[in-house]
Write a structure and sequence with these properties.
The complex is a heterodimer of chains A (348) and B (483). Chain A has 348 residues and is mainly alpha-helical. Chain A has helices at residues 4-55, 61-68, 72-83, 89-100, 103-111, 116-128, 134-138, 145-155, 161-172, 180-189, 194-203, 206-219, 225-231, 238-251, 254-263, 269-282, 288-294, 300-312, 315-325, 330-341. Chain A is elongated, with a radius of gyration of 30 Å. With 483 residues, chain B is of the alpha/beta class. Chain B has two domains: 1-52 and 189-483, no CATH class; 70-177, Spore Coat Polysaccharide Biosynthesis Protein SpsA, Chain A (Alpha-Beta Complex). Chain B is built from 16 helices and twelve strands. Chain B has helices at 2-15, 17-49, 55-58, 79-87, 107-115, 155-165, 184-188, 190-194, 227-250, 265-271, 281-296, 318-338, 349-364, 366-382, 388-416, 423-456, and strands spanning 66-72, 94-101, 117-119, 133-139, 145-150, 170-174, 179-180, 198-207, 212-214, 217-220, 260-264, 301-312. In chain B, the strands form two sheets. A ten-stranded mixed sheet of chain B has the order 3-4-5-2-1-6-11-8-12-7, with helices on both faces. In chain B, strands 9-10 form a two-stranded antiparallel sheet. In chain B, helix 11 packs parallel to helix 12 and helix 15 (388-416) packs across helix 16 (423-456). The longest helix of chain B is centred in the last third of the chain and has 34 residues, at 423-456. The chains are: A mainly alpha (348), B alpha/beta (483). Chains A and B meet through helix 1, helix 6, helix 8, helix 10 and helix 12 of A and helix 3, helix 15 and helix 16 of B.
């Protein structure tokens, strides 16, 4: 039998828990409301100050002092918001103002903090303001992948030899090579990465090389031809051969075309499809008859890419497609019909 | 007869009390673990996304292409609004495929008229067997929009057709009447950008009823004033912010809502696409992908991302809601039955040893155990075999713990996204949280049991769903429920 006291205690405990939850929920709401209002007021003032300071050629000491008096978080919020909309001289002024009010120093300290969340915050502030600080470069080797990825975002605007080399090391790191931030930052650096990336491709294999080939395809420099040719012959990794075929298609040229035509006989269908697609992309009309043969391939995607590539070759390709209509292979004839039926603007 | 009943109740009350109490405490202890896990995961997530710059994704050639698959069946009322919202999504490489699954109303005609569709031919590989496609259209004003008109074959069949036409590396499966927030895809794609082992991601689903909607955008989230949609707001918050987020940290997510999920297209096609003969096709696919990753290798991580939000209209009548819950429970039973080999099987790691048994013993059987408990309690009191004080204590403890968990979920929402900002909405949320256990919960137990019974009898129908359309949610009546 349960005593009245126990029931009373349990009821009281439950009521207490509920009252605590209700109080927490509503008090948090009140606190949020007040904080939001205060933040809105302060951040508007801070934004206005930063905007005035940036737009004027000279620094207004009073305005700067007013900004410096704002809470740190409000200053950072204003800097980050405005950083999206300025570049060149505007960004330089923004950095100057941030330096003057101590925001950059505080961000540097955050970068050295023992907690990864603080380092991430520091790296975010410095990268959004494009601060060329070697401290962020050291974060490219941070133990936490999110911090490394953030440092990679910073690196896109700092394409020095050391930074590129550190970025390529991230590309080789299994924890970050898949990260969009790393590949995208390398891509945004532009042509300067061609030499180091070609050297990277000389020395790396596997997933690291595949990630490198993906970046190289977007840069499409002739200096990648040697690497692409080498990787196109890697026997045990079809993924790398596909990436190499795509890179060859992006670079184009005689050597690329010759290798791609050989790759049409690759044992893996996705490699043959990528080779056919690349030949179409290069508009290498000399490959017309080989692509015509590919219309009889056993794999649907190879037939499709071959058909679309023939279409991309223009009149010579169309002739091959019409010939394929009369093929004794009904799959080839069917694919040719589908390609010829496509509207002129369709990509297939 | 009375003696037999007396003996049975006596046995159930006194012989089974140990296991029942153990079950009760185990479940509540587990919920507490999930709550703490959700709190930690949410904190980590908020720290990661604060001040992140997603604009790089918008301008990069490396952004993965996404094909949105929106199956539509008799969606004449909502299709235009939903589609305009999809076309306004902020994502660079986007393709939208609407699949009309043999709609009998004017769905296709509305699309042709409003989006200047023209018939086109395209090359596609039918790797998954589906019902025939009648016609394919492309919009002459929105090049990214493709509409497939096919014969009726169900949602799974429509999604499979969409998979055949999709060109994206990733496919986003959704319901045609779901409203995805503008930056939802940018947020949802994150796990795919960070890692290679992710096969699917899911976002949060929220209830749109009562909110202010304009041009397919939720301008102001409000909590409905009607009981059924109101309680469902609380339910959805608990399911996503507490359940899925908690499981996320523990590596045990196996559910991605059919209304908003992002998948690696190749993995889905290789797995054979969506199954036709189940009413739980979304969960079945996720569990199959997970299972295949253990059996054959390849990516198998299922990630829940809390900040991308899709809004959905929930049923406002008990009959429609009952059909939905009955179907969900039949789906769960069917999926667990199909993959029963995973139960306690160490080959399937955490999923086999913890997640699957949790879904089987807690999610699937909970209504059965609850109803047995309630009936036994009632009979025990009626026969005078039970101290009413004990019964009251037990019920109040269970009720209080449930309400406290829900209350802490509301606090989680408030600490992170706080979409319901006004005092009125907070008060309503709390009110619905208190009321949930008084009648509503018991109704869902009945519907879930009905679903279980229908599963045992082999019934697989979907049941009709009624939609009122987002345009019917006027700003002036916001808060008064869907008009």
């Amino acid at each position: 039998m349960i005593g009245d006291n126990i029931i009373r205690i349990v009821m009281l405990a439950e009521v207490g828990l509920l009252v605590f939850a209700v109080a927490l929920f509503f008090l948090h709401g009140v606190w949020l409301n007040l904080t939001d209002r205060r933040l809105q007021r302060l951040s508007k003032a801070a934004r206005d100050s930063v905007a005035v300071l940036i737009s004027r050629g000279t620094i207004n000491v009073e305005e700067l002092a007013a900004l410096a008096q704002q809470p740190d978080d409000v200053q950072v919020m204003a800097f980050l918001e405005i950083s999206r909309n300025v570049s060149g001289t505007g960004k330089e002024r923004l950095r100057f103002i941030a330096e003057k009010v101590g925001a950059i120093d505080r961000a540097r300290k955050l970068c050295e903090h023992r907690r990864w969340t603080r380092r991430l915050r520091g790296a975010r502030i410095l990268s959004r303001l494009d601060v060329p600080d070697p401290l962020v470069r050291t974060l490219l080797a941070d133990p936490h992948p999110a911090v490394r990825a953030q440092a990679a975002e910073w690196a896109a605007a700092q394409p020095s030899e050391e930074v590129i080399s550190a970025m390529l090391a991230l590309l080789a790191d299994p924890a970050t090579q898949a990260r969009f931030a790393v590949q995208n930052a390398l891509l945004r650096m532009g042509g300067v990465i061609a030499g180091p990336l070609a050297a990277f491709l000389e020395t790396h294999t596997g997933r690291a090389a595949e990630a490198g080939l993906r970046v190289a395809e977007s840069v499409a420099e002739p200096s990648f031809v040697a690497a692409a040719l080498r990787f196109s012959a890697v026997e045990d990794d079809a993924g790398i051969r596909v990436a190499a075929a795509r890179l060859l298609g992006a670079i184009a040229g005689e050597a690329a075309a010759a290798r791609l035509t050989e790759m049409l006989k690759d044992p893996e269908s996705r490699v043959r499809a990528a080779a056919a697609q690349s030949l179409g992309r290069m508009q290498h009309w000399q490959a017309g008859s080989l692509l015509f043969d590919c219309m009889r391939d056993s794999a649907w995607r190879v037939r499709k890419e071959a058909g679309l590539s023939l279409r991309a070759l223009g009149a010579p390709g169309t002739l091959f497609l019409r010939r394929a209509l009369r093929s004794d292979d009904r799959f080839a004839a069917d694919m040719a019909q589908q390609v010829l039926d496509l509207p002129a603007t369709a990509a297939g | 007869m009375n003696d037999i009943l007396h003996t049975v109740v006596n046995a159930m009350l006194f012989k089974a009390q140990g296991p029942v109490l153990a079950y009760f405490f185990a479940i509540n202890a587990w919920y507490l673990i999930l709550l703490v896990s959700a709190l930690l995961e949410l904190r980590r997530h908020m720290l990661l996304i604060t001040d992140e710059s997603r604009h790089l994704l918008l301008s990069s050639t490396l952004s993965p292409t996404i094909s949105i698959l929106a199956p539509a069946y008799n969606e004449e009322a909502t299709i235009e609004t939903s589609l305009r919202a999809l076309l306004a999504l902020q994502y660079p490489n986007l393709e939208i495929i609407v699949i009309s699954d043999g709609s009998k109303d004017r769905t296709v005609q509305v699309l042709i008229d409003r989006f200047s569709l023209v018939p086109v031919k395209t090359i596609y590989e039918q790797r998954i067997k589906t019902k025939p496609v009648r016609m394919l259209y492309r919009s002459s004003t929105y090049p990214a929009l493709v509409v497939v008109d096919k014969e009726n074959g169900g949602k799974a069949d429509a999604l499979n057709v969409g998979l055949s036409f999709a060109r994206g590396e990733l496919v986003c499966a959704m319901d045609a009447d779901t409203l995805i927030e503008g930056d939802g895809l940018q947020r949802m794609v994150r796990p795919f950008l960070y890692a290679t082992d992710v096969v699917a991601t899911g976002g949060t689903i929220r209830v749109v009823n009562g909110s202010e909607v304009k041009h397919g955008r939720v301008l102001k989230a409000r909590v409905p004033t009607h009981l059924l949609p109101g309680v469902q707001v609380v339910e959805y918050l608990r399911a996503f912010l507490f359940g899925r987020l908690g499981w996320n940290r523990l590596g045990g997510n196996i559910i991605i809502s059919g209304a908003f999920g992002l998948f690696q297209r190749d993995a889905v096609v290789t797995a054979g696409g969506y199954l036709h003969d189940t009413v739980g096709e979304d969960m079945e696919l996720v569990l199959r992908l997970k299972r295949l990753s253990y059996e054959k290798g390849g990516p198998g991580k299922i990630a829940f991302v809390p900040d991308p939000v899709a809004w959905t209209e929930v049923p406002e009548s008990a009959a429609v809601l009952g059909r939905q819950r009955d179907r969900w429970h039949r789906g769960l039973a069917d999926v667990l039955w199909r993959h029963r080999r995973m139960m306690f099987n160490p080959r399937y790691g955490v999923t086999g040893l913890f997640v699957y048994p949790y879904y089987a013993f807690v999610e699937l059987l909970a209504p059965l155990i609850e109803v047995i408990g309630l009936v036994t309690l009632g009979l025990g009191l009626a026969f005078g075999m039970l101290d009413w004080k004990f019964a009251a204590l037990f019920y109040l403890t269970a009720y209080g713990l449930g309400t406290a968990m829900t209350a802490f979920t509301l606090i989680l929402e408030d600490l992170s996204f706080h979409r319901y900002a006004t005092f009125r909405d907070r008060a309503l949320l709390f009110w619905w949280a208190l009321l949930e256990n008084l009648g509503y919960r018991q109704m869902t137990v009945y519907w879930r049991l009905r679903g279980l019974w229908k599963f045992i009898r082999g019934r697989k129908e979907w049941g009709a769903m009624e939609r009122k359309g987002f345009q019917a949610v006027p700003a002036a009546s916001a808060g008064a429920g869907t008009a």
